[in-house]
Amino acid sequence: MRKKIKTIAGAGLLILVLAFAVPSDKYFEVAKSLDIFATLFKEVNALYVDEIDPKKLVDTGIDGMLQNLDPYTDYIPEDRRESFSILTTGQYAGIGSLIGHVNKKTVVTHPYPGFPAYLGGLKVGDEFISVDGKNVQGKSTSEVSTLLKGKKQTEVTLVMKRWGQKENLTFKLKREQIKINNISYSGVLGSDVGYIQLTEFTPGAGREVEEAVRKLKTEGAKKIVLDLRNNPGGSLYEAVNIVNVFIPKGQHVVSMKGRAQDWNKSYTTLNDPVDVNIPVVVITGPTSASASEIVAGALQDYDRAVLLGQRTFGKGLVQTTRQLSYGAQLKVTTAKYYIPSGRCIQELDYSHRQPDGKVNKIADSLKREFKTSSGRKVFDGGGLLPDVPIQEKTFSSFASELAASGFIFDFATMFCNEHPAPVSMKSFSISEANYVVFTNWMKNKPFTYRTNLEKQTEELIVAAQTEQYYEEWKAPLNQLKTKVQPSLSADLIRYQEEIKYLLAQQIGFHYFLWAGERESTIAMDVELKEAIRLLSDPPAYQKLLAPAR
Fold first, then answer.
1. What's the CA gap between 232 and 291, in Å, rounded?
2. Catalytic: which of 145, 184, 288, 290?
3. What is the rounded CA–CA span in Å between residue 226 and residue 216?
4. Out of 315, 341, 491, 500, which one is annotated catalytic?
């Protein structure tokens, strides 16, 4: 019956005739609403005073409708299918590099090892001048990206500007099928701690983690740290495969429950594990979501790993992609997922919005208690609580705005073109002399910023004016306003430790990509240091996994 309604609605004919034949009030309302929408659109398109874009108008209407559901249900028109496919599969045909807009320049930001951009010699910070003879200076990153993509094995000619070189450089690259790795870094830290930084959950993630664990064990790893910070999730199936690396075959990992019975499914591990005994610490953060939470939650529920870091995002919803007419797609939430203890960690209740449209978190009083395999207490309704909470590292507004400005990126580009790469970033640090060079370099840069203190002072003055206290407090308020005015030289000294961290991170990436970025900041990573310390203390580790007495 749904197919009939859809077909006739698309034709815009006989909807009401069919609707009255259906003995369901709900289907009548569906048909009635579609008919109203179709006739309204027809009238607006025919009579509106100015010329309208029909596609844009319909897309806006669809987006508005879906906004009343949840942020994960999304309409994907045909012209967005490619970008959506890249997001979900990690695959596309191109040169194998992310690009970005930095200080009015479109530059190489992330060349992937093993692919044309990297193999052809492009470096982080190289500026795009032209693509296949088309000048791209001043163009948006999306426009440049479109020119870089194309059919596999086709050639693209790039003219690039590299810092410190007078003449532009020309590169002729052949486009290849690009598959983005799910693991951005893995290696042995110290003598026996294997570290895996998992940033994606695209197809193949489970195989990559399995191979990484096996390799780390051959290199001497006797403990594993799985870092899921800043991992927004992805494939549910790959989450099951990753859990399977550490737990036996045939174990329940996750189940889905939706309104439609067809979407009620349960997933168990299907393969022999790599190691069911090796101690594991999973690092989580507030942006660890979806598939990341399935992995972390299942390992917690089976008492197979200690969770360390911050509470996770709390996304307990599952999306499915459905094909629509004319090449469009619908990504729609079809179910909630439940991890082995039986809990759903969804934090926001989209089914009960406030009259103003706001969405509430699930109240603490409504959260339910569950038990892990050993009897430890865990809870639903608000993400995953770590077994070892660590306060999240935050940056000052000054350091954040400085990083966003692109000047740290530009300085790293200059620095790496002037200095040979070190043997390893593990022992690299920003010296006092290097930091002085940076601060002097910044003096001539058009960097403006506003601190949170400055913003709050202005809000206080406005409030004083509104409440008619300003004239009485005018002198001290203006004095305060003067005192909180930002000083670049003073703030570069005040926040130097934060800025040194960001500089080391960016310089490390410029030299050695993700490996360099990770290794340059290991010594300053509070969560990672605590994970290594915990794994080096077996009694403390085991105590965290034991049931409460």
1. 8
2. 290
3. 12
4. 315
Asked if 280 contacts 242 with a C-beta cutoff of 8 angstroms, the reply is no
User: Taking the domains of the chain in order of start, what are their residue ranges?
Assistant: 2-52, 91-179, 183-319+333-389, 397-450+487-535, 452-483
Are the beta carbons of 70 and 350 closer than 8 angstroms?
yes
State which residues of the chain have pLDDT below 70: 1-24, 79, 81-92, 548-549
CB 76 within 8 A of CB 326: no
Can 301 be counted among the known catalytic residues?
A: yes
Q: Which CATH number applies to 183-319+333-389: 3.30.300.130, 3.20.20.30, 3.30.2130.10, 3.90.226.10?
A: 3.90.226.10
pTM (2 d.p.): 0.85
Looking at the structure, give the CATH architecture of the domain made up of residues 91-179: Roll (2.30)
290 catalytic? Reply is yes
Q: How many CA within 13 A on the CB side of residue 17?
A: 6
**Residue 400 appears among annotated catalytic residues:** no
Which tens digit of pLDDT belongs to each residue from 395-410?
A: 999 999 999 999 999 9
Nearest residue to 156 (alpha-carbon basis) of 135, 118, 137, 130: 130
Q: Kindly name the residue from 301, 380, 410, 491 that is annotated as catalytic.
A: 301
- 94's CB contacts (< 8 A; 6+ apart) are 145, 148, 149, 150, 175, 176, 178
